[in-house]
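Batch job 17 of 40 flagged for manual review because the log was empty.
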Amino acid sequence: MKYAYISFLYSLFIVINRVNKMFESKDTDHTKLCEELTNLIDMLFCEVTLPTNKVNIFNKNIRDILDQKCYLGFRFEKQIIEMREKGLLMQTKKLCGISA
Protein backbone atom coordinates (compact mmCIF):
# COMPACT_ATOMS: atom_id res chain seq x y z
CA MET A 1 0.00 0.00 0.00
CA LYS A 2 2.90 2.34 0.76
CA TYR A 3 4.16 1.90 -2.79
CA ALA A 4 0.80 3.03 -4.16
CA TYR A 5 1.03 6.29 -2.21
CA ILE A 6 4.65 6.76 -3.24
CA SER A 7 3.57 6.37 -6.87
CA PHE A 8 1.12 9.26 -6.32
CA LEU A 9 3.78 11.37 -4.63
CA TYR A 10 6.45 10.67 -7.27
CA SER A 11 5.42 13.47 -9.63
CA LEU A 12 5.13 15.85 -6.69
CA PHE A 13 8.62 14.93 -5.49
CA ILE A 14 10.05 15.81 -8.90
CA VAL A 15 8.61 19.33 -8.72
CA ILE A 16 9.59 19.75 -5.05
CA ASN A 17 13.13 18.65 -5.85
CA ARG A 18 13.36 21.15 -8.72
CA VAL A 19 12.24 24.01 -6.46
CA ASN A 20 14.60 22.83 -3.73
CA LYS A 21 17.53 22.90 -6.18
CA MET A 22 16.61 26.48 -7.08
CA PHE A 23 16.89 27.44 -3.41
CA GLU A 24 20.31 25.80 -3.18
CA SER A 25 21.66 27.99 -5.97
CA LYS A 26 23.67 31.04 -4.90
CA ASP A 27 22.73 33.35 -7.75
CA THR A 28 18.97 32.90 -8.08
CA ASP A 29 16.50 35.72 -8.55
CA HIS A 30 14.50 36.05 -5.32
CA THR A 31 11.38 37.05 -7.22
CA LYS A 32 11.63 33.86 -9.29
CA LEU A 33 12.10 31.79 -6.13
CA CYS A 34 8.99 33.29 -4.57
CA GLU A 35 7.03 32.67 -7.77
CA GLU A 36 8.19 29.04 -7.99
CA LEU A 37 7.38 28.40 -4.34
CA THR A 38 3.92 29.91 -4.75
CA ASN A 39 3.35 27.77 -7.86
CA LEU A 40 4.45 24.67 -5.93
CA ILE A 41 2.02 25.39 -3.10
CA ASP A 42 -0.78 26.01 -5.60
CA MET A 43 0.00 22.73 -7.38
CA LEU A 44 -0.05 20.78 -4.11
CA PHE A 45 -3.32 22.45 -3.18
CA CYS A 46 -4.89 21.57 -6.53
CA GLU A 47 -3.88 17.91 -6.15
CA VAL A 48 -5.98 17.39 -3.02
CA THR A 49 -8.90 19.79 -3.37
CA LEU A 50 -11.85 20.09 -5.71
CA PRO A 51 -11.22 22.33 -8.74
CA THR A 52 -14.23 24.43 -7.74
CA ASN A 53 -12.52 25.57 -4.52
CA LYS A 54 -11.28 29.10 -5.06
CA VAL A 55 -9.92 30.05 -1.65
CA ASN A 56 -6.79 31.62 -0.27
CA ILE A 57 -4.92 28.68 1.23
CA PHE A 58 -2.96 30.93 3.57
CA ASN A 59 -5.97 32.00 5.62
CA LYS A 60 -8.20 28.89 5.52
CA ASN A 61 -7.78 25.50 7.18
CA ILE A 62 -7.05 23.08 4.34
CA ARG A 63 -8.86 20.24 6.14
CA ASP A 64 -12.12 22.10 5.55
CA ILE A 65 -11.70 21.97 1.77
CA LEU A 66 -9.94 18.63 1.09
CA ASP A 67 -11.45 16.45 -1.60
CA GLN A 68 -12.08 13.15 0.19
CA LYS A 69 -12.20 11.33 -3.17
CA CYS A 70 -9.38 13.09 -5.01
CA TYR A 71 -7.85 11.28 -7.99
CA LEU A 72 -4.36 10.18 -7.03
CA GLY A 73 -3.22 9.59 -10.59
CA PHE A 74 -2.74 6.75 -13.05
CA ARG A 75 0.29 5.23 -11.29
CA PHE A 76 -1.61 5.02 -8.00
CA GLU A 77 -4.66 3.54 -9.72
CA LYS A 78 -2.54 0.98 -11.58
CA GLN A 79 -0.74 0.00 -8.37
CA ILE A 80 -4.02 -0.47 -6.48
CA ILE A 81 -5.39 -2.67 -9.31
CA GLU A 82 -2.24 -4.82 -9.20
CA MET A 83 -2.46 -5.09 -5.41
CA ARG A 84 -6.13 -6.05 -5.62
CA GLU A 85 -5.35 -8.78 -8.20
CA LYS A 86 -2.62 -10.20 -5.94
CA GLY A 87 -4.85 -10.04 -2.87
CA LEU A 88 -2.51 -7.60 -1.13
CA LEU A 89 -5.12 -4.90 -0.70
CA MET A 90 -7.22 -7.09 1.57
CA GLN A 91 -4.15 -7.86 3.71
CA THR A 92 -3.46 -4.14 4.06
CA LYS A 93 -7.05 -3.46 5.11
CA LYS A 94 -6.79 -6.15 7.80
CA LEU A 95 -3.50 -4.71 9.08
CA CYS A 96 -5.04 -1.23 9.25
CA GLY A 97 -8.20 -2.52 10.93
CA ILE A 98 -10.43 -1.56 7.99
CA SER A 99 -13.41 -3.79 7.32
CA ALA A 100 -13.74 -4.91 3.70
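Reviewer: the log was empty due to a logging misconfiguration, but the result itself is present. The CA atoms of residues 2 and 52 lie 29 Å apart. Unflagging and moving on to job 18.
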